[in-house]
Every structure is written in C-alpha cells, then in structure tokens.
Amino acid sequence: MSFEVPEPYVWDESFRVMYDNIDSEHKAIFECIFNCAKDPKSAPLITKLYDVTADHFTDEEGMMVKANYEDVTNHKKIHNDFLAKIKTLKAPLDAASVAWAKQWLVGHIKGIDFKYKGKL
Ligand code: FEO
C-alpha cells in the first residue's frame, strides 16, 4: 500500500500514533530527511538521519517489548533493514535515494507503526 508523501516534507497530524514521545521522534526523522533533501551534499546530515532514526527505533522497540506487542520481531527486522540501507548512503545523495527515504518513512508510520496504536 502506498501513502501520499507530504510536500513540503513535514510531519502532520495524519501521522500521529498517539504516543507523544514517538510522535516527537517521528517529527525529528521527518526533519532529518527534509534537511538531507535540502542539502544532499552534506555527509553529516546523513549521519544525523541514521543516529536520530536508530535512537527512535531503540525507543519504539523498547515500548513494544515492554508491552509484549505481538509483532515486535517482524517490526524490528523492518527497522534493521532500513538502517542497513541508510548506512550505505553516501553524500551527495541522489534524488532516488531521497525519494525512497521519504516514501519509506511515510509508509512505515502509516502501514506498520499504526498497527501498535492503543497496544503499547
Ligand atoms: Fe516509528 Fe517503527 O518506526
């Protein structure tokens, strides 16, 4: 399933998962991708995207484990696959990589994260 990618690339209420800490972290990842798109030649911005995303995944996975969320193993694998791909990205980022990251985050929040709403 594909979801509409916002333009400008900024978090909005349609991405709310109802856990304030997670929503804040998602906003921060949106911001990182926005910044990478604006300045694709910057290697530090790619590193920041990786770090902010990894920290978010750690927090989110911790909440899932604590809540005995049933899909945690599959969800972790999806996170790890994304991080592995981000790790391979090098500046200057090409347009296809930026578009892929934008689409991935939108699809992940709405298609995967939304499944834990009300369960954590
Ligand atoms: Fe919010 Fe599963 O990442």
Automatic annotation (TrEMBL):
Fe cation 2 binds at residues 60, 75, 79, 108, 113. PROSITE patterns: HEMERYTHRINS (PS00550). The keyword Manganese does not apply. Fe cation 1 binds at residues 26, 56, 60, 113. InterPro entries: Haemerythrin, Haemerythrin_Fe_BS, Hemerythrin, Hemerythrin-like, Hemerythrin-like_sf, Hemerythrin_metal-bd. Keywords: Iron, Metal-binding. GO terms for molecular function: iron ion binding. Residues 18-119 form the Hemerythrin-like domain. Gene3D superfamilies: Hemerythrin-like (1.20.120.50). It comes from the Eukaryota. Belongs to the hemerythrin family. This is Hemerythrin-like domain-containing protein. The lineage of its organism: Eukaryota, Metazoa, Spiralia, Lophotrochozoa, Annelida.
